Amino acid sequence: MTILQFREHFQGAFTNMLRWPQLRQLWTVVQNSPEGWYIYCVGQELPTQPVQVAELQRFIQEIDELLHREHEHDYCGIVYADNPEAPQMVKIFDPNNLGVVCGPSKGTVLPGWILSRIPPQSLDNPGILPENRKRWWQRLFPS
């Protein structure tokens, strides 16, 4: 895949996991085909290799816990998949950095994390990753 393909795919159509059960189903689909996933923490170093199955499982568990803990709503609405039944890319927005995810805003709010089967490329203007998110990420994936 080329840079253009990743960016074109990133800009394509995505489906919102509006309800928590939809998110659980998405995690199940990803976990049922765990090979070949890259995990990109936007604003951090780009991954060069897909993660191991155990790393993917741990990430899904940790990000799900983070979303439930910090997105204090009875709905999800901050995770998007290109195809929920056979995803190639999943955008996960940080509950503490939502800005205006949908609708007009002064700038683009990038997801905090991207699961992708397409090797990721750096996204423009990722902003500054808060220290608490850096620590969370480094705990999951120590250098």
Describe the structure.
The chain has 143 residues and is an alpha+beta fold. The chain is 35% helix and 12% strand. The protein is built from four helices and five strands; from the N terminus they run H-E-H-E-H-E-E-E-H. A hairpin with a 7-residue loop joins strand 3 (79-81) and strand 4. The model has no long low-confidence stretch (mean pLDDT 86).
Element string (H = helix, E = strand): HEHEHEEEH
- SS element count, helices: 4
Strand order of the largest sheet: 1-3-4-5-2
Which consecutive residue ranges, at least 5 long each, have pLDDT under 50?
A: none
Distance between the termini: 26 Å
Considering DSSP H and I runs of 4 or more, what fraction of the residues is helical? 25-40%
Global structural class: alpha+beta
State Rg: 14 Å
Mean pLDDT equals: 86
**Number of separate strands:** 5
Strand percentage lies at 5-15%
Largest sheet: 5 strands, antiparallel
Q: Which descriptors apply to this entry?
A:
143 residues, alpha+beta, 5-stranded antiparallel sheet, 4 helices, 5 strands, globular
Write a short abstract of this structure.
It contains four helices and five strands.
How is the topology of this model organized?
Layout: H1 3-11, E1 15-16, H2 20-32, E2 38-41, H3 53-70, E3 79-81, E4 89-92, E5 113-116, H4 131-140
Antiparallel strand pairs: 1-3, 2-5, 3-4, 4-5
